[in-house]
């Protein structure tokens, strides 16, 4: 049975059925439906003659091929997506009249696209970058798009600066180098000359910029929206996606090696887990501020460069999203999906957040060239599941066949239809906020503190996160050619923490900062990844085996891994059956050549050897060393002691030795759940 036929199908699944086609076991036709008898040779004048213009099949096939590409997104070009369903935990009618949040248990189909920001479509999944987390809810009242990132703040406060930011971080225009990274002069030149970037850059230098999986990263609305209830009462709101599996990331050295071994790592991880039934889950939380409390905080709640500390504004969890189906066609769905923060439903409205106001123009504007005009809403993946009726007509790729001769309002020939719906009938009514003031190009004084929250972020981090940031700055700014810009970064971020930039200055040959950091001692423990959930489910273990490996304990270990939802690959010098002690056999599906330690969440060393003993030991040691270096779990069976002893790894946190313990399997599962062991000593 087809995967999408299992269980209850969503309204979006049913709608998409009419657009799906399966070409298997069908006869070849042209796009006009004409069956073709031949598809290997052009129509020519004789066997060695010229191709004839009347060859309509060649012309159609080649013309379509020549026009298959569309412009990639300027940002968020590299993305991957999946279908799913959102279920509300409770009624939110007290806060919003949005129908999909109106009752406990109500389910809404969703489509989610994860992405990197800077890189082109063909770049790697694992650059140091912000990640997009865009969700399209196909609600009964129309499409609602929650267009988020995996960090709660942004680089700039006003949308008018967005082209400048993107131009600075993209490859430099004179040579189109470097790809998918901010480790170059123009980006850091922008940073030091636009110091509102300080908070976002600190998050960008943290481990959050290198997510282990799309399934293990958070999502934030960044901008401030409004909830409006049926009585017209408004409250400010920000949204947060919380991964059920916890928040986990790569080390920088690990990320670089993952990119080299599998640049599709994150998308492959998402695809494979959905195919295996390990459906990613995210809880939706909201932070709500009463209108009367708008000016209560020591930051401006409309400033997109500031996050809302969860200790001051708690997150209320209101539902859960489950991604349970992969796309059928990457281009038709993932590439053509069009998100826009202005796609809202009754009960969700906008604030005066100046970055949000800019986004409300930009997102529609960019789709016009990418998707061929104003009818991108008719592409199957973008179509709402509810009917839509208006007097818009024509344009490129129009699919709707509108009947009748009326295409305007007001009218009498069609009895005044389609007519506006009243608020009681579900018509969207903007919140009536009183707005007054002179036309100015200026920003409130409350937007001008750029360093206090960046300082709070630093104050809140665990040691391993702080060390990561030091190394990240050292790498990124170390790639900058201009000594003046290097020094500018040191001086700017000394306002966040003097010790941080003293350490960085030493590594990048810059002068240590002269000024101290801002006097701000608040902490927000919620921003530290050290406080995340840790679960073993969907972890991947690599088991190193050679001929004569220790098979006695592996049976129990494999049972414990399977029970915990951990998948395992046997890795050896060759693929196929590897014979162990006491007749135990393992099917090696990978070799030291076809995979790498960084593609696993930890390894288990079962020992044995290969035809070339020295090479086997060297290859195994490289696996062990990288796993140890990246703070991941190493399990050592009694037969694996010799291989372990020849590596650089040492006993300690996250290194589980079988010798002398009966709970080897359980201990391994607990260690895999922990994922990283940053208290490990080298």
Q: Using the coordinates shown, work out and report the CATH topology of the largest domain.
A: Catalase HpII,  Chain A, domain 1
Report the sheet-strand fraction.
15-25%
Q: How does the overall form come out from the CA principal axes? A: globular
Total number of beta strands: 17
Distance between the termini: 52 Å
Number of domains in the coordinates? 3
Proper CATH architecture of the largest domain: Beta Barrel
Counted by DSSP, the helix tally is 17
Name the CATH homologous superfamily of the largest domain: Catalase core domain
What is the CATH class name of the largest domain? Mainly Beta
The level of helicity is 25-40%
Low-confidence stretches: none
Question: Quick check: average pLDDT?
Answer: 95
Rg (CA only):
28 Å
Structural class designation? alpha/beta
Main sheet attributes: strand count, strand direction, barrel closure: 10 strands, antiparallel
Would you write up a description of this structure?
It is globular, with a radius of gyration of 28 Å. It is built from 17 helices and 17 strands. Strands 1, 2, 3, 4, 5, 6, 7, 8, 9 and 10 form a ten-stranded antiparallel sheet that branches. A seven-stranded mixed sheet has the order 13-14-12-11-15-16-17, sandwiched between helices. Helix 4 crosses helix 12 (483-493), helix 5 (198-204) runs parallel beside helix 10 (452-459) and helix 14 (554-563) crosses helix 17 (664-674). The protein has 682 residues and is an alpha/beta fold. The chain has three domains: 79-382, Catalase HpII,  Chain A, domain 1 (Beta Barrel); 458-528, Hemocyanin, N-terminal domain, CATH 1.20.1370.20; 534-674, Class I glutamine amidotransferase (GATase) domain (Rossmann fold, 3-Layer(aba) Sandwich). InterPro entries: Catalase, Catalase_AS, Catalase_clade2, Catalase_clade2_helical, Catalase_core, Catalase_haem_BS, Catalase_immune_responsive, Catalase_large_C. It catalyses: 2 H2O2 = O2 + 2 H2O.
